[in-house]
Amino acid sequence: MTERNIGDVILKVDNISLSFGVMKVLDDISFDVRQGEIRSIIGPNGAGKSSMLNVINGFYHPQQGSITFKGNTRKQMAPHVAASQGIARTFQNIALFKGMSTLDNIMTGRNLKMKTNLFWQALHIGPARTEEIENREAAERIIDFLDIQAIRKKPVGKLPYGLQKRVELGRALAAEPDLLLLDEPMAGMNSEEKEDMCRFIIDVNDEFGTTITLIEHDMGVVMDLSDRVLVLDYGKQLADDVPDKVRTNQTVIDAYLGVPHE
Amino acid sequence: MIYRETGQFKSSYESDQALFPIKQDRYVILGVLIVTFGVVPGLLNEYWLNAILLPFLIYALAALGLNILTGYCGQVSLGTGGFMAVGAFSVYKLMIAFPELGFIPLVLLSGVITAAVGALFGLPSLRIKGFYLAVATLAAQFFLIWLFNKVGWFFNYNASGMINSPPMTVFGVIITGPEGDMTGKYYLVATFVALFALVAKNLARGRIGRNWMAIRDMDIAAELIGVRPLIAKLSAFAVSSFYIGMAGALYFAVWLGSAEPTEAFDINQSFLVLFMIIIGGLGSVLGSFLGAGFMVLMPILLKNIMVDGFGTDAALAAHIEIITVGVLIIGFLIVEPHGLARLWRIAKEKMRLWPFPH
Ligand SMILES: Nc1ncnc2c1ncn2[C@@H]1O[C@H](COP(=O)(O)OP(=O)(O)O)[C@@H](O)[C@H]1O
Ligand SMILES: [Mg+2]
Question: Taking CB atoms and a 6 Å cutoff, what residues make up the pocket around ligand 1?
């Protein structure tokens, strides 16, 4: 990988605990993400990785702990506030707008960049028109970047799985986020599609300087891409280190090899 | 085939985003407008205008409204009849209190009042969805009709409980009530419908329309990219009710001339407009027109064929009509939820690619 350009801490997670009823999903988790980093979260199924992302972008409300993003500390917030502060994400189970075209999905991702009111939009003149064209240009740059020109006008519900994942990345990128949360972006892909997705992630990080938090099961990918790796298991924090250290960490190996829990 | 996109290269996003990017579509729309405003009034007699075209246009406006809420934003409503009543009673009270404002502004104002009422009854949609929301809007329907029957102020304490439209003019022509000029009524309603169809199309292709559809397709993801459910849903309820309120105002003041809430605006109206958008096509401006046309024309056609043509018993003909609608609704819901508009799109698609099947 090229020379890394890592800055200050952009996201700080402090002592987060989250339970659903009696089930403790996250237990006192603390870590940070630095500007420009690719930061991975790994762990077996049910470890609480997706829940962690849900806490970060305001969808789950933890019982304890706090989140500091770009200097603002909070215990919880509404998802649209997280979005307006610059956090975007993709989902483990694709959550596209199925009835809409690829282009409209990506344009919806730019919704926070668009401001004209109902009146101008109803007439589709003046500022509404200018704004639509400007944002269309931005959307088209993303479409070019992801190489999905051919499916621009297709309803996304009918696209193959791999392409849907790509469109979902496009929708998240459209918001020009500071922090991009990717929940298993390569799950269910063949190796060629995986390679493409890896390249996109590296390029996004490299060219736009976007900070990325990545959940991924493919250890090869994780070890290649990540600057640092956080390991979760049953809601507990097992390790948090650079890939080489994590790879040789005995507790992590045990967790992955399925050593029974005491 | 003549319906072709080939050779019409779009050189800018602006032209690609145009209302009708394909030239032939523009010609069709132009043709429809010329026929609507130039040919129809001279060609058709009063019976046609009054029995078919006025109700078709007014219902098309109501269907556009419900389609914004249900087709685009995914919020089911069974309150259409009630919201039409709000528009009708608003325009009635306004016509009597402020006749000097003129009829067109009063219709718009009735739409605004209905928008506020609609947004209010849309509040439950922030908590409940689907079936439960349908029940909540059904409650709105019954409450509103009850209100307009019970509270004398709304019908100016008229002993019959009816409201009657006083004569009002637009450009010197009487438009409302029984003395109204039929051609004038037609022009007025057609203008309203054409303009607000354009507005619906504009909203649908811009940010607001995309946010509505995002809420419809995947509300959680929408919220996580910054769409505010509160604003998206309530704006859909408000805009939808604005349309339905204007439709109710025109329905009462221009078409019926007088109305009684239980008869004119009961739950059957809600279902009728809902059927229009299901048959015509959910989430489609064109579909609102196709559905309204179908539901207005079909009973007349069936009656003409069966009763006048074959001498079928009128009651039996009415039953056959109900069965036909029922079968079509089920058919469309199962096979083609995007309705007639979608069938039209597929036909166009086939033409575009002809003679190559793929
Ligand atoms: N909304 C929820 N309600 C109840 N339990 C949940 C909810 N979300 C996640 N969980 C539970 O939390 C645990 C962790 O889930 P998740 O964060 O999806 O794990 P991972 O992404 O690491 O596979 C699982 O046992 C899951 O069933
Ligand atoms: Mg997960």
Answer: A 20, 25, 43, 45-51
